[in-house]
Amino acid sequence: MDRRHASSGSPYEATIGFSRAVRVGNHIAVSGTAPIWPDGGIVLDPLDQARRCWEIAIGALTELGGSVSDVVRTRQYITSADAAEPVSQAHGEVFHDVRPASTVVVVAGLLDPRWQVEVELDAIVFE
Q: Residue 95 carries which DSSP code?
């Protein structure tokens, strides 16, 4: 079975040894995706962070031949329950018609203390 990888250019990919996304057969898994802008900057607003996370994750999904309509599961890790509403709003903007199985978990922290959200997804592509 063919195995393909997508990279987002994250500096962590090479040092940690992971891919932004992996496709094996018709399954695509997108790794935990943080709100990092192309210049390496961080915006502190949780809604903007969530939108950026989904932009990166969906970009990797698309690179491997998937689309938002193929997403079957999402996970959102937030550092405060206060971020749940804006992060959920961003999720709804992307997945309102798809309605994948989804989980939101409040965690003690993420790799960078400025990150308020990190997301991941799984998709099944039927071509």
A: H
* pTM assigned to the model: 0.95
Q: How far from the centroid of its chain's Cα atoms is residue 22's Cα?
A: 13
As separate numbers, helices (DSSP H) first and strands (DSSP E) second, the chain gives 3, 6
Q: How confident is the model at residue 13 (pLDDT cuts 50, 70, 90)?
A: confident
Instruction: With CA atoms as reference, report the closest residue to 122 among 65, 71, 64.
Output: 71
Distance set, CA 66 to CA 5, 106, 118 (Å): 13, 28, 20
Question: Residue 76 and residue 120: Cα distance in Å, rounded?
Answer: 7
pLDDT at res. 9: 80
- Please name the residues in contact with 106: beta carbons below 8 A apart, sequence gap of 6 or more: 78, 79, 80, 81, 84
